[in-house]
């Protein structure tokens, strides 16, 4: 996925899906040897457990790797950081909406 300039909708959706899968893998699977430092420290542990916060960094690095850009102008590092923030917020809002719509609520009496 070498996106030199602006990307198509399909390319952006693939980028968002890869990032969401990466966030899920990082937060779900026990990678104690690699990520134990982040979970033990109080500040980084909270940052690591937040989907939105972790998503900014995951999407930032994915934008650097895949050179994703939806803007007509390109400014190194700044464009990737904005892409990371925007995509993380968008995916986070979609996830919240999905879980609110399809989450099973059990009321016990």
The end-to-end distance, rounded to whole angstroms, is: 53 Å
Number of strands: 0
Poorly predicted parts: none
> How would you characterize the largest beta sheet?
none
The secondary structure category is mainly alpha
The oligomeric state of the chains shown is single chain
Q: Can you give the helix content as a percent range? A: over 70%
Overall 3D form: globular
**Number of helices, counting only DSSP H or I runs of 4 residues or more:** 5
Q: Helices and strands, in N-to-C order?
A: HHHHH
The chain-level mean pLDDT equals 82
**How many structural units, i.e. domains?**
1
- The radius of gyration computed from the alpha-carbon positions, rounded to a whole number of angstroms, is 16 Å
State which percent range the strand residues make up: under 5%
